[in-house]
Amino acid sequence: MKFGKLTGYQLSGxxxxxxxxxxxxxxxxxxxxIINVFCGLETSDxxxxxxxxxxxLPVSLEVSKEGDCLWLRTExxxxxxxxxFYVDFYDKEGNQVCSDYRGERKLLQRVSDEQIRLLESxxxxxxxxxxxxxxxxxxxxxxxxxxxxxxxxxxxxxxRHYDYxxxxxxxxxxxxxxxxxxxxxIPFFIALTDxxxxxxFADNTYKSVFNMGQESEDYYFFSSVKGNLDYYYIAGENIxxxxxxxxxxTGTHPLPQKWTLGYHQSRWGYMTEEDIEEVAVGLRxxxxxxxxxxxxIDYMDNYKVFTWNQGRYHNDPKGYLKSLTERGFxxxxxxxxxxxxxxxxxxxDEGMVGGYFAKDxxxxxxxxxxxxxxxxxxxFGDPKVRKWWGEKQQFLMDLGVRGxxxxxxxxxxxxxxxxxxxxxxxxxxxxxxxKMHNVYGHLMxxxxxxxxxxxxxxxxxxxxxxxxxxxQKYSTAWTGDNVxxxxxxxxxxxxxxxxxxxxxxxxxxxxxxxxxxxxPELMARWVQLGCFSPLFRNHTSLGSRRQEPWKLGEEVLRIxxxxxxxxxxxxxxxxxxxFEEERTGAPVMRPLVFHYEKDKTAQTCNDExxxxxxxxxxxxxxxxxxxxxxxxxxxxxxxxxxxxxxxxPVWFVKDxxxxxxxxxxxxxxxxxxxxxxxxxxxxxxxxLILKVYPGAGVYDHxxxxxxxxxxxxxEYHHFRFTVxxxxxxxxxxxxxxxxxxxxxxxxxxxx
Length: 751
Description:
There is one protein chain. The chain is of the alpha+beta class. The strands form ten sheets. It has a nine-stranded parallel beta sheet. Strands 1-2-3-4-18-15-14-11 form an eight-stranded antiparallel beta sheet.
């Protein structure tokens, strides 16, 4: 990108139009703390898939020229624009926060072609330096940065000194720190320095690179092979405010149905009605609360989407799903995008007649292979196709299905990846796969969500493997095909926390691991972490060891039951956190740095996390350990199990035998709990039990019907509990719109 000298400018509303020798560009104040930097290298408009609607807020704007530079000032941000379209950001006091790097990139010295051949001869590979791409932004490092977010990535919480790619990728190999890309591409990160915090959202759907100081100690950069220069600088006083503003742009997750926050049981390999029934009977017989059983690809007729294998369900799948529902189990079915190429198969026939499938350059329907064999791919970038796909969900609803699990939507394929030049639609014009790849899963989730919302009326429950920024408006997500190894249990904490910091709050891992064989100890420790993750699902692969809790011995069964029951006891707390999330974007599962960003230990803590602002969880994530070091940030903390009080900041050695996950509650907190249930709705929710931890604090609690969108019409109760130092509680009802309030509220002082 060569811009040259700034030759002219004009203020149009809140947008500063800029003329350079080589390009036209713009800087727009979307809001007082949100600045868009744009150059239409491919299109003149944003065409964002993440940001829907006009997000501009009124801004008090001043523009001035000093020497060769333009200065743009809002109530919160000062922006300097110079020759070469260098853009620097300052706080309102004039302190520099984020600036473009003025020097040349220093490519890392790698190896020669001859050395590459030598490495490859023994099976090694060698990475070459990333040369400048079509769209590139290089920012100066101050030396104190920590980077968080970037979506679904391997490794640790802090992404400083690492580099990643945004290209949705289905790679079944065990995911390790060297993996550059996984299933999700969320090009947003939060930068924390000793003096400031800010976010950057680079809204470009092409394959991109984010090098967070891996190449140099002087700068970091993000680049894309094609597309527009289009990024948002997001200012804020702290990490929660930056994330709130990012999710103002891209959306928050709607309040989920309450049952979805319960326990989910799944396995690729439940082939028949008898297999599912064995699991259902085992769950209830072993006193494991459960709300959902998932049906993987084997329920379909020859893996054809929107069909059911009648023979495996005695020609009455609807009747069987009804029997599951009557026992409190909600059926959730997998759906892949690949449609079997088969004349006479109604989904394929409808798609061919409607022109709903992606095509090659010559206009022929593009074919690859997935589970059903030869398959074609819906063009979800076309609004007509999304509407059609949404209407197809009626087949599942009529059978009694309550949720949809979108898989293979990177899109994955068996005969090599889809070529870059497969032709899709970008709303109203053709676009190649290279542009639409990273939003394919996003648009599939949108089609599914809108279909269920329109047809069913309840809050849709959609899970996706692939996504882009903004997918949180439509779907929850899981981290894909992990493996039953301790390294993946360890990785789950920073992985889920960074997804939360990327605007995806409703996420989880496959508890126990998807690939390979779990062990009793690994499963016992994983459920202790999993019961605090927003999506709480045990899932594993065909051919692996069975992971139903009663298959792993009496000790594991007892531990598993303990933590699933704890999750159900705490469901009102998790539900409250989603009420908060929909309003503010704050994730449910949070790294310590979210609330303690000045704490040096919290900034790089990988093995503890917060659940909301009140609960600290320090699970054991190493084999053979029966005690662990726990770090407490500032404040007073109560041991959930013993009531012992500790004051931070401090390290503490906690005994943690196999049945114990260290859990701590902050002084002044309230944890709303409910009486034991085997599934949500088994009994009326007449009694609320408040666990109160002495200290000064305020807690907001919500109650509604837990299913539909009536809460958006005011049909909910809003309670406020104010805790005093002695543990006494003052109760207020701030809003009374729900017609089935609690009959009793019980207060139980802890500690």
